[in-house]
Each structure stands twice: as C-alpha cells, then as structure tokens.
C-alpha cells in the first residue's frame, strides 16, 4: 500500500490504500461533526462558510474558518514535502511519516477529548484544527503517492468521476476497457468505505465518544504494519530462495568437487 | 519594485491578520451576561399552518407551541455565567443548566443534569442582540427564532 510510488503502484495497492483511508476519513469526518458540530474534511463547505462569514462581517468566525482551511492546506503540504524529499532514500519511510503524524494527531485529540476537554470554544477550535491538519496529511499523502488517483477525505470529485465513468459504460467499447473498469471499482470502493466509516462513527458515537479516534488510529496502524509485514515477508522469501540456491549450488558443484578431491 | 512587492505582500497579510485578531471578539465572552427574551417567531413554517396571517407574529403562542418540549420553556431571562453555567429565570421558576459553544462559534449547546442536550443555532450575536434558531419537532414543523435583548 505504501511502498510504491506514482505509476509503479498496482490497482490492488490503490484499492487497499483508498478503501482503508476512506474508511478512516469517513469516521473522522462524522466524528468531528457529532463531537464539535463541524466537518473536518469538507473543505469546499468551509470555503462557502468562509465567504458567508466574511459577508456577515463575523471577524472571529472568519479567522477560525480561515485557519481551518490553512491547516488542511498545511497538512497536504507537509505530506507531500515528506514524500518528495525522502522518497529517494526510503519510500516506505517517506510514505509512512504522514500516516504516523496523522495517528499522533488523532491520539492527541482522543486523549485530550476523553480526559481534559471542558467544552470551551477555544478547545473545540484547536481540536478541530488538529483534525483538519490530519485530514490534510491523509489526503495529501494518498493523492501524492497515487499520482492524484486517490483522494479520500471528500467525495465531490469521486462522485463526479463515477458519474462520468458510468455514463461511459453505456458504450460497449468503454465497458470492456480494463483501466476504466478498475477506476470505477476503485472509486466505488472509496465511496462505499467512506460511507461505512461514517455510519459506524454515527452508531458508535454515543458509546465511544472521543475513543472513536483510537479506532481510526488502529486502521491507520494496520496500513503501516501491513506493508512492514509485506517487506519482512519478502525479505524472508528472498533469504529462503538464496538459501535454496546455495544448497543447490552446494549439491551440484561444491560437494562433487570435494568428493573428487577425496577420491 | 518586484522585491518590494515580494516583502510587501507577506507583511501586509500578517498586519491584516493581526488587526483582525485584535478586532475579533470571542463569542463566549460576547454571550456572557443577562439576556431578556423579546420575541418568538417562526421563520419557516409548513404552508398549511400559516393560514392565519397573524400567526407568525403572536410571540407568546409560538413560544407556547415551539418550546413545549424544551428546557427553556418557562424562561424569560437567560443569564450566561462565565463558568459555563446558565440560569434560566421565569416568572416563578429558576433553573440552572450548563452551556457551551461549539463549531466555529455558531452552535449553542445546553445541557441539563440528566444528560439531555439541546442545540441552537447562534444566528446573530452582537453586543445588544442575540438570535437563536432551532428546529421544532412539534405539530407546527418549522424553524423557530428566538430573539433576545441584552439587559444593561
């Protein structure tokens, strides 16, 4: 999911990363709406709200919404900064750092909300800012490493693309196009997982409260560990193959040579 | 000229943000104090319910219908204290509940002791006027508007 970059990514890589990150985005977005009465990833909506607050002349609200949009921007900025600067050294580490930062953000919100939150407006705004930064990180990372084919924190573009794709499928030549079919599968999966995450957040909100961000963190940890496990597994198979090759070489060349020498 | 503009834009942006921050007043601080209910009205009502042309303006009737399931039912004076306590004063009753502001400062949350929570849209908040909106679930479906004046 995280090891490969841009065009070297397979459809399966994108499908797994897109689905899991969409699930976590759905949970975070609805979680923040239920806990703080504001979306954490609906930036288009925040732009509309920003405009309306400017028109109303509400300076405080204008500044708050502007800072939320700016933090989403910063999240995306930091994610891509990590990717482009560290990709040459270790792509897995470069792609994992934004997810690790996102986990830190979510655990911070969860821990603070569960233990110290006094429901003041200042706290609400800071916690929401952290969530917007986290969503910026996630969206920036997925878009950056997938060559802009995965965006998981909002579904405007995804729904538009799905509409276009399904209209294309009314023609037989496009219905049989493997790339288009894969794209439709990816976008449908992102939509479905986002919705599932949102519904689960809605159902578990009363019982979990702020702890729901721990659940999201576990999903994100799975994304990181899955690739780590794959890397380890690959290394193991590689070593095993080398060992087998060495054994064959030993049997075919070295042992007969020794036997010859002894004889 | 180009280098001048290069420095001017960030400096102007910082100065503008600093000015705005100094002007901006926290809605929590603005809300603190004593507010008196002045009018109850329906902003959006089902068409069938507006046959009576005077209906929208009968404040006490609207209050009676719209607030029958709400904690604010018998209050006429709302005193927002800085410790997130709200005192609802009526003619004969006084109730103490908790208040907080959510979202970007646009949602007023009222909490009773028994875990009941009500949410109101903080539509307008100035130094002397407060307007709250809420969805009414009563037989008169619509958005009710509650206007307050600040007690000086």
Automatic annotation (TrEMBL), chain A:
| InterPro entries (alphabetical) | DUF1275
Q: Which UniProt keywords apply?
A: Membrane, Transmembrane, Transmembrane helix
Membrane-crossing residues?
20-39, 59-80, 92-113, 125-145, 186-206, 212-229
Protein's UniProt name: Uncharacterized membrane protein YoaK, UPF0700 family
- What are the leading ranks of the lineage? Bacteria, Pseudomonadati, Bacteroidota, Flavobacteriia, Flavobacteriales
TrEMBL record, chain B:
Instruction: Provide the leader sequence positions.
Output: 1-24
Say which domain of life the source belongs to: Bacteria
What keywords are annotated for this sequence in UniProt? Signal
The entry's protein name is: Lipocalin-like domain-containing protein
Q: What is the lineage of its organism?
A: Bacteria, Pseudomonadati, Bacteroidota, Flavobacteriia, Flavobacteriales
């Amino acid at each position: 999911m995280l090891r490969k970059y841009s065009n070297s990514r397979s459809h399966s890589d994108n499908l797994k990363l897109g689905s899991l990150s969409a699930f976590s985005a759905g949970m975070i977005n609805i979680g923040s709406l239920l806990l703080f009465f504001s979306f954490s990833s609906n930036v288009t909506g925040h732009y509309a709200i920003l405009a309306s607050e400017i028109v109303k002349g509400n300076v405080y609200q204008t500044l708050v919404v502007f800072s939320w949009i700016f933090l989403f921007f910063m999240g995306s900025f930091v994610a891509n900064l990590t990717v482009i600067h560290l990709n040459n050294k270790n792509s897995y580490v470069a792609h994992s750092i934004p997810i690790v930062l996102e986990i830190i953000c979510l655990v911070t919100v969860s821990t603070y909300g569960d233990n110290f939150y006094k429901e003041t407006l200042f706290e609400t705004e800071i916690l929401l800012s952290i969530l917007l930064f986290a969503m910026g990180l996630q969206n920036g990372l997925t878009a950056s490493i997938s060559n802009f084919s995965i965006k998981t924190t909002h579904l405007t573009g995804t729904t538009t693309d799905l509409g276009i794709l399904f209209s294309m499928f009314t023609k037989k030549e496009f219905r049989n196009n493997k790339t288009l079919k894969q794209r439709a599968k990816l976008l449908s999966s992102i939509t479905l997982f986002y919705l599932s995450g949102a519904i689960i957040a809605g159902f578990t909100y009363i019982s979990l409260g702020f702890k729901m961000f721990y659940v999201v963190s576990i999903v994100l940890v799975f994304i990181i560990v899955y690739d780590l496990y794959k890397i380890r597994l690959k290394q193991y198979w590689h070593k095993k193959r080398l060992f087998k090759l060495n054994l064959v070489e030993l049997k075919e060349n070295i042992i007969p040579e020794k036997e010859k020498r002894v004889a | 000229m180009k280098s001048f503009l290069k420095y001017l834009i960030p400096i102007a942006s910082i100065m503008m943000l600093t000015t705005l921050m100094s002007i901006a007043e926290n809605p929590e601080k603005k809300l603190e104090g004593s507010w008196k209910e002045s009018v109850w009205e329906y902003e959006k009502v089902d068409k069938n319910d507006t046959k009576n042309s005077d209906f929208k303006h009968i404040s006490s009737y609207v209050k009676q219908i719209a607030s029958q399931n709400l904690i604010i039912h018998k209050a006429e004076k709302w005193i927002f204290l800085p410790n997130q306590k709200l005192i609802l004063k009526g003619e004969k009753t006084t109730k103490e509940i908790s208040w907080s502001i959510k979202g970007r400062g646009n949602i007023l949350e009222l909490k009773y002791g028994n875990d009941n929570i009500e949410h109101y849209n903080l539509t307008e908040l100035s130094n002397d006027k407060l307007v709250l909106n809420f969805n009414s679930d009563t037989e008169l479906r619509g958005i009710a508007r509650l206007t307050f004046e600040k007690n000086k």
